[in-house]
Amino acid sequence: MNRTSWLVVILTVVAMVVTDFPGRRDANAQGSGPGFAGPGAIIGDPDGTLVVIDNDKTVFRVLPNTGDRTILSSDGIGSDLTDIAREASGTFVAVDGDLDAVVRIDPATGTRTVISGCPQAGDPCPVFLVGSGDPFRRLVSIAVVGGALVVVDFEAQAVVRVDLSTGNRTILSDATTGSGPGLEEPMGIAVQSNGFLAVVDFALDAVVEIDPDTGNRRILSGCPQAPDPCPEPLVGLGPFFLRPIDLVVRPDRTLAVLDSDLGAIVGVDPITGDRRILSDAATGGPVFLDPSGLEVDRNRRLFVADRVRRAIIQVNPASGTRQIISQAPALNISPGTGTYTASQSFDVALFLEGGIDSVFITSAVLNGTEMRDTLDSCERRLTGNGVIIRCADANTLFGLNPGKNRFDVRLDANLAGGGIAQLRKVVFWYIDGESEGN
Predict the structure, then answer these.
(1) Phi and psi dihedrals of 172, rounded to 5?
(2) Rounded to an integer, what is the distance from CA 222 to the centroid of its chain?
(3) Strand 348-353 versus strand 386-391 pairing type
(4) Do 19-26+330-435 and 39-326 have matching folds?
């Protein structure tokens, strides 16, 4: 591809002019407190709050009715938390895919303790191996069953039982334990009202039911679709799963499955395996951009964590309509700090995420030069997730030089729900000064 000018850059920045944006938006900034970087797993607490793993490390507590966010745990052991569950005592347990361990989190102090697993060679584990049994290989999800834990090991293609008191590990179901179709790429796990386990497998495109005593497996709903590695006939009627990643058991004992490729929540009858769409782009509200976690609370409400939106979305269980309930405004500059080749063309796209009534850029400085007036000519429009300002032919506008370029943006965002958010972002672009050619 021919590249002219200086640099291919799509800058995810934000409105650098004073402007009003009338009209309704899909996404609104909701709630106070520190913003999400990329919310993933989500569970409900009996006190009515939601507990959310953010950016694979920080654990937030969220008030569903206000969207307010507080940090429950942010430091200590673990930086790749992939799922979280609650013990009967009120403490939380999470699986860490980097440590290959189960970590307990004190809800009062945020202190984290390894209760099963690690170390293995190469693991950044600060403790000695806890518990006996085969080591974990790649943990992705967790559930509490009575006085034990069950965890899904993606790489081992297994469900493992963990003794809460000792940390000892026992294979509950895998290729050599239990009969039935083998797990291929197991993800989310839930405990049904009858005590049987339900696991979504996004290679099989199915929900797999597992007997907790024998480890026997059967397809509860879904597959086959070519080229799925599914050895069983299709179970249940309704839309096919495309990439099921998480599931919950609803109060009426049916299942709700989060499918990231469908961009939908799919209801599943555990008796027949029949599937129906509970919520998708057609039912109303902001579409799911990168749904990563699903939960149902004591009031039967469904909640989805969306990494790209950096938000928690509430789903009406009857109508399927969706509403963002917790999302902080965010300013980003992408591709961010990095090294780029000269002789490349580039545009600049400016984004402010969240509901905005107006934006005032207090400062937009490139290499010591104020750029607010320069950006006044850029195209402005609303998106489903905020505001976009796109500047074509940015080389003419910015004139980036070989070497180090510093771009510092500061702004005040007047939020649709009231209040002002002050945001800042700084990036460094290193231009190597050499022509890339064709």
Answers:
(1) -90, -40
(2) 24
(3) antiparallel
(4) no
**Cα separation of 208 and 218, whole Å?**
6
CB 41 within 8 A of CB 81: yes
* Strand residues in 92-236 grouped as ranges (E): 92-96, 101-105, 112-117, 139-145, 148-153, 158-163, 169-173, 186-191, 197-201, 206-210, 217-222
Domain 19-26+330-435 fold is Immunoglobulin-like (2.60.40)
Q: Is 378 left (phi over 0), alpha (psi -120 to 50) or beta?
A: beta
Q: Which amino acid is at 378?
A: C
CATH number of 39-326: 2.120.10.30
Instruction: Please state, in angstroms and rounded to a whole number, the distance separating the CA atoms of residues 121 and 86.
Output: 30
Residues contacting residue 68 through CB under 8 Å, at least 6 positions apart: 31, 32, 33, 62, 326
**Cα 361 from Cα 410, distance rounded (Å):** 6
pTM of the model: 0.77
The structural domains of the chain, with segments of one domain joined by +, span 19-26+330-435, 39-326
Give, rounded to a whole angstrom, the gap between the first and last alpha carbons of the chain. 6
Residue in this structure with the two tokens 């569950």, named with its chain if needed: 85
Per-residue pLDDT of the chain (438 residues; tens, 9 = 90+): 222 233 333 333 333 333 333 333 333 447 888 888 889 999 999 999 999 999 889 999 999 999 999 999 998 888 899 999 999 999 999 999 888 999 999 999 999 999 999 877 666 777 888 999 999 999 999 999 988 999 999 999 999 999 999 999 999 999 999 999 999 999 999 999 999 999 999 999 999 999 999 999 999 999 987 776 888 899 999 999 999 999 999 999 999 999 999 999 999 999 999 999 999 999 998 899 899 999 999 889 999 999 888 899 999 999 999 999 998 777 776 657 788 776 666 677 767 776 666 777 788 888 999 988 877 777 777 765 567 777 777 666 777 778 888 888 887 877 766 667 777 888 787 888 654 443
